[in-house]
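Could you join me in thinking about how sequence relates to backbone shape in a protein? Would you write everything just below, so we can both look at the same thing?
***
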Amino acid sequence: MTQSTDSGELGPEDRKIITLARSARARNGVPEGAAVRDETGRTYVAGTVTLPSLELSALRTAVAMAFASGATSLEAAALVTEAESVTDADRAAVADLGGAGTPVLLAAPDATLRATVTTP
């Protein structure tokens, strides 16, 4: 896993997906919020899904929403969580649609960027 702390400025589109992910987390009262941006610039936002018969992380839910809506590629993803890292399963889901090297922006609940992780 490649992980690096970003000390530079985020672009407006990356700030946007972090803000959207943070909003989903707060609005739904879930542990994680995520957003992904597809090849056309459309964004898909999701929170953690916890149902009796279905559990999905916020990031896997956002990837599934993008795919189900016809996205063929991802430019970037954002995950807002208290966790210190992005799970291998989440990175794999982003890679399934985005390909190797797709950046995943890992942010704290206050939207502070912790790291940028690339997919395998």
